[in-house]
Amino acid sequence: MSKPEPRPPICDYEGSNYRTEFWEGKGRDYEDQVERIALRRLLPARGRRLLELGAGFGRLTSEYGNYDQVVLVDYSLSQLRYAQEKLGTSGRYIYVAADAYRLPFRPGTFDGATIIRVIHHMSDVPGVLKQVRRALVPGATLILEYANKRNIKAMLRFARGQQSWNPYTLEPVEFVELNFDFHPDYMQQQLVNAGFQMQRSIPVSFFRIGAIKNRLPSTLLAGMDGLLQLTGLHYTPSIFTRSIAENASVDNLNTGNLFVCPECGAELLQQGDTLTCSGCGQHWAIRDGIYDFKAPLDEYA
Ligand SMILES: C[S@@+](CC[C@H](N)C(=O)[O-])C[C@H]1O[C@@H](n2cnc3c(N)ncnc32)[C@H](O)[C@@H]1O
């Protein structure tokens, strides 16, 4: 019998206080504002169904009002619970706990996807992009943010001999366990390899420097950042990109049932709060309105 493929490690936010320890009242209003400016520049005017991959506690979900439906996917049930408390259970939002490397969606389920502040936790970028590409219809828009290794701070540190890794080479750098910075050319190549055509790339967060942020109001800095985003100077710590999914694939945008088994890809049959795979027979739970594909029910037992 062949051994199951090893799975890439996951940066697990289960039970973390990401919202209160990283964002709220933590001096990151500037970063939040500039990310919204970049997103607004890149989002299409209208859309049907958006996959928000690594949605966390739904910090940016309010930006996706142009989509009829938003599917928030995150590996952390606790992050999704907070998002659900905030955004509600109207059916406009669907909450899905799943691993980005094993998405539980029918091919061609979405006409848009966003991945913001998430891919820096991924050791297997091609693996994630392949999963996302498969879930999209041809012509769909992907907005991907990544952490840029060729940023001005890293370039200066490297020039002064204070940093061992080279910001100009293509390979990703893991500066802390499961935290990667990527070169812009590397990311563009990965997008092309996965079947995307990159249309636009925007440098973001020019002023992510404590000494500047502490002295000037975040709205002023965000306004200046918004202008600098148009310069094409890709030396910032964060880069936002917009790509289009190319070539033929299946279109299931009109199919009501979004899910297939993340293990084997077969149809799922729902009975109450349990989904049963018609292929491998595994069971998956719906917990208080959150679809839980982290592990089959059988493994929870
Ligand atoms: C830094 S947070 C960003 C959250 C949100 N996008 C934002 O910008 O506020 C990263 C999120 O990615 C999720 N994540 C990390 N690895 C994942 C994986 N393999 N599959 C699904 N989600 C993952 C984490 O649970 C976490 O909520």
Structural class: alpha/beta
**How can the largest sheet be summarized?**
11 strands, mixed
Tally of DSSP β-strands: 13
Task: Kindly report the name of the CATH homologous superfamily of the largest domain.
Answer: Vaccinia Virus protein VP39
Our count of domains comes out at 2
Fraction in helix: 25-40%
Low-confidence stretches: none
Main-sheet strand order equals 8-9-5-4-1-2-3-13-12-11-10
The CATH architecture of the largest domain can be named as 3-Layer(aba) Sandwich
Termini, distance in Å? Answer: 25 Å
**Unique bound compounds:** S-adenosylmethionine
Mean pLDDT, to the nearest integer, reads 95
Specify the oligomeric state: single chain
Gyration radius, in Å:
20 Å
What shape does the CA trace take? globular
The succession of helices and strands, N to C, reads HHEEHEEHEHEEHEHHEEEEEH
Question: Helix tally?
Answer: 9
Strand content: 25-35%
The CATH class name of the largest domain reads: Alpha Beta
- What is the CATH topology descriptor of the largest domain? Rossmann fold
Considering the chains and any ligands shown, give keywords for the structure.
alpha/beta; Rossmann fold; eleven-stranded mixed sheet; two-stranded antiparallel sheet; globular; binds S-adenosylmethionine
